[in-house]
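Let us practice reading a record.
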Amino acid sequence: MQHAVGSPLPPPHQPGHGPADGWSPAAQHPGPHRPGGTPQQNAPVPPPHPAPHFTGAPPAGPVPPAPQPPVPPVPHPPAPQHAPAPPVPDTTGHVPLPPGGPVPMPSSPPAATGPDPTATTLAVLLIGPAGAGKTSVAKFWADHRRAPTAHISLDDVREWVRSGFADPQRGWNDNSEAQYRLARRTCGFAARNFLANGISCILDDAIFPDRPAVGLGGWKRHVGPGLLPVVLLPGLEVVLERNAERSGNRRLTDEEVARIHGRMAGWYGSGLPIIDNSQLDVPSTARILDDVLARAIASPPKW
């Protein structure tokens, strides 16, 4: 027989003792103290849990109060929601760059001070035949300016194409023409981005006066009306000598150099500034270039 937890164990059964001898079903649930009861019956016992199977008479005494319904727990107010922490700043030094736009004409400083081409943001196009010294002068000029300056060489950008490079020395065709135009447009985009961020640019290219739409006109479309073209045109003998010192696909045949030089002579009637650097070294040519640019800033050429 199972008893609920906390109930007193029944006394052992003895012969001649029945329920009236001190143990009755009511003893499992003692009530208040009754006179004449046994000490075990009079002892205070904590009320046990009622056994589900007990069907005896209810204990004598006052009826305990009915159990109260459980009080629902008081809900706690929700925890305050804090605003999310601001994002951690980028530690890579990201700097937003303004988009590059067409380059306007450089503004002329007051006449009292005069233009200083070494401290002004400029876009310069150095034109000349192969062997004229364009790349050497452009690098030196960019290296020695007070203002930040980038040198963008068309030949360098054109040679970014590795597999499938269309070498003009093997014949001028549609592929070489397309790669030249693509390189010019890429150089123009690069120059506009540099100039939009305060960095001057000098570009060098061998363009012909008899093809304005492809050459000078194309550069003006790619960079903007503020582009300042300057022609570097030494004598044929000097060009041939300098071309002989070149290597790789930069070196042309003497016939090709003479043909290009003859076509470049058309710049003399174009109104563009021309520097004959036949007897000048690179630093001297760069100084004359500064003088030419100072005059071009004060009075932009019409081209």
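A brief commentary: The two ends are 119 Å apart (CA to CA).
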